[in-house]
Amino acid sequence: MVAAGTALATGHGAAAPAREAVGSNWYAAAPYLMPLDNDPPDAAAVMDATGLKAFQLAFLLAPNGGGCSPTWGGTGPVSSDTAVAGVIATIRAKGGDVSASVGGYGGTKLGQTCGTPEATAAAYQQAIDKYGLKALDFDLEEPEYENAAAIHNEIGAAKILQQKNPGIYLSVTTAGTADGTGWFGKQMLNEAKAQSFTPDNFSIMPFDGGFNGAASQTAALTNFNSVLRSTFGWDEATAYAHEGISQMNGRSDTGEYFTQADFQTVLDFATAHHLARFTNWSVNRDRQCSPPDNNGKTSGTCSSVPQGAYDFTKYSVRFAGATPPTTPPTTPPTTPPGNGGCTAAAYGAGTVYVGGDTVSYQGHTWRARWWTQGEAPSTGGSGVWQDLGAC
């Protein structure tokens, strides 16, 4: 991880000033941004390029050495932070705002180390007060959501914060499965019901679970709607009004692929069914790798699919109800570079290719899914070739 941050303009370690919150539509659309790790992009540049007005900053955790005080990533105490405060100040100076996300996949969570809901809420309140936060996301996933006591603390803390900070926007994010969410996700919903806690939305992450493409994601959202209805007694429309999705742009951790076309399909589903939230992990990854397919690997700093800068972030802007700025078309060179502008080696009929090999053919980049020889890249045939898009 590469730590990076912007010095706080007000100096002396002061908190980023509170400001009037942007509309809840922007908190509902805010994509995740790691402000200190994974080669963070300049937030102001992202806003200029896309029209985005809100980011979901990740992650607030317990200190790596233990304890019940909030840190960024387990290492940066909120109490003495200036780097993240500087990023927040930059975003607010441009008319935007942030939500902070607590939890996530890695590190130790405050729900695990703080002994009670009250202590957990007090830790999060420190961040709310320091940064003047109007929104908070509870990203409850493994291994924390397998710990009943920790989830009791997290849900209890969320309820306390909701009562103590009137109007705060709260989202709860958890793992997605083909049937909506798994056993632990359902237990988390039952905990929320038992504590009479209702956030602005419950969001699932339909990736890293055997998903591939938009159809599998919208099917999971449909099934999650049924889970919400059966848990809380809501009708279909009410359940959708409390339901959200958090996607992963490009190549997922487990090798699933979600393209711009998949995001558009899910966006169409979300708007048609009036979902409450549409976000993704992450802005840090919303840029093209070099080579574009990243040699078939997943990265925290690029998407591993062909794309323009911040292509996926622009879908969040559309969900919020805004139109992304138009990117001026680039003028193609008079004489294209060799091989039609492709960087991968040209396909050879006599060459043996194995899974993961990439080639250029008819102006597109293709990746072999398995061993092949003598079958030219196409979207038909045996299906051995995956079209990664035009060069």
Overall SS class: alpha/beta
Q: N-to-C terminal Cα separation, in Å?
A: 30 Å
Low-pLDDT sequence parts: 1-16, 329-340
Average pLDDT rating: 90
Work out the number of β strands: 15
Series of secondary-structure elements, N-terminal to C-terminal: HEHEEEHEHHEHEHEHHEEEHEHEEE
Tell me the fraction of residues in β-strands, as a range.
Answer: 15-25%
**Main beta sheet: strand number and arrangement?**
10 strands, mixed
What is the CATH class designation of the largest domain? Alpha Beta
Give the count of structural domains: 2
What's the CATH superfamily of the largest domain, by name? Glycosidases
Number of helices: 11
Radius of gyration: 22 Å
GO molecular function: carbohydrate binding; hydrolase activity, hydrolyzing O-glycosyl compounds
Protein name: Chitinase
InterPro entries: CBM5/12, CBM_sf_5/12, GH, GH18_Chitinase
Region (Disordered): 285-304
Layout of helices and strands:
Layout: H1 24-29, E1 32-33, H2 43-50, E2 54-61, E3 71-72, E4 76-77, H3 83-93, E5 97-103, H4 110-113, H5 117-131, E6 135-139, H6 148-164, E7 169-175, H7 183-194, E8 201-205, H8 214-232, H9 236-241, E9 243-248, E10 250-251, E11 257-258, H10 260-272, E12 277-281, H11 313-319, E13 358-361, E14 364-368, E15 385-390
Parallel strand pairs: 1-2, 2-5, 5-6, 6-7, 7-8, 8-9, 9-12
Antiparallel strand pairs: 2-3, 3-4, 10-11, 13-14, 14-15
